[in-house]
Design goal:
Number of domains: 1
CATH architecture: Alpha/alpha barrel
Number of strands: 0
CATH class: Mainly Alpha
Order of helices and strands: HHHHHHHHHHHHH
CATH topology: Glycosyltransferase
């Protein structure tokens, strides 16, 4: 088995142990040279004792007058117009940084109401994505249906924060209805399903639903158990990034440790991480690498690797 040799200062090992750890100094240098202000502020907040307000201000810079978020906050949607995916990204970052802002969030969810599908929830992408450059997979769905991906992730965030809103009530109905008949989900759809089930207040119903749909990750081969699997794959840490994640019970500790080793070892010589999907735009690639560098460090620290 080939072994990638790095100095202790760059990648490191735990006191002669066999658990790889990341190089925070190299990551900071990478972000300083390549990352967005937003990702640099997130790094400072999460790992350097930085204040929450600069993160809040950096997120707010992507806000539109309609209350939604755009301007490539979600790096693959580079049009200025508001998008559900950008709102989800905004709320996620505000939550992680402890920079939750009631006014920003309420205005964003009010915007979700204004563009909601007839059934409620949020569409995968709004037609305004066509007003600017975007990845080819960001295409509006015919009939403007609710998306398990966006609806579930947004609802999960709002429930995690105890944020009440009429949009959330209808989104919850959409999620329960879709989950009840879910048999052939895609990997990205499962992100929304798991985010919802992890945070929805009705824990008995959520656990029963997870017992039925959670194993689909394995039975439908939606998760790559081999850390070195090539191509655009999703690993256990994508679905269960934290020890407390609802889907963590699906994977044994040896599998999780192997993926943590792989994640730590995936730090490049420039200090950053890279993604495994198509890089269609140099700007999007740079933005994603900054975001994913901070996120990789977050996951590794939460799992005792930093």
């Amino acid at each position: 088995m080939a072994v990638l040799v790095k100095t202790a200062a760059r990648a490191g090992w735990w006191d002669g142990g066999m658990k790889k750890t990341p190089d925070f100094d190299a990551a900071a240098d990478f972000l300083a040279g390549h990352g967005r202000v937003l990702d640099r502020r997130m790094f400072e907040r999460l790992f350097c004792g930085g204040a929450a307000e600069p993160v809040r201000d950096a997120v707010a810079a992507y806000r539109n007058a309609d209350g939604g978020f755009g301007h490539a906050l979600e790096p693959d949607c580079r049009a200025a117009a508001s998008q559900p995916a950008a709102v989800e990204m905004a709320l996620r970052l505000l939550d992680l940084a402890g920079a939750w802002d009631e006014r920003l969030v309420r205005d964003a969810v009010d915007w979700l109401v204004s563009v909601a599908p007839a059934e409620g929830g949020a569409a995968f992408v709004e037609p305004t994505v066509g007003q600017g450059p975007h990845a080819p997979w960001w295409a509006p769905e015919e009939g403007h249906p609710a998306s398990l991906i966006q609806t579930g992730q947004l609802a999960g965030l709002l429930y995690a924060r105890g944020f009440a809103h009429p949009w959330l009530e209808r989104a919850t109905e959409v999620m329960w209805s879709r989950i009840a008949t879910l048999t052939e989900p895609g990997g990205y759809e499962m992100f929304g399903v798991l985010a919802f089930l992890e945070n929805v207040p009705d824990r008995g119903r959520a656990e029963a639903a997870f017992d039925r749909v959670g194993p689909l990750l394995l039975s439908r081969s939606l998760v790559a158990l081999d850390p070195g699997a090539p191509g655009e794959t999703h690993g256990p840490l994508d679905f269960a990034s934290l020890p407390t994640s609802i889907a963590r019970r699906l994977f044994d500790q040896a599998t999780i440790d192997a993926h943590l080793d792989h994640l730590a070892g995936a730090q490049r010589d420039d200090g950053g991480w890279m993604f495994n999907w198509a890089a269609w735009s140099p700007a999007a690639e740079s933005d994603w690498r900054g975001f994913l560098t901070v996120d990789a460090l977050r996951v590794l620290r939460a799992n005792g690797r930093a």
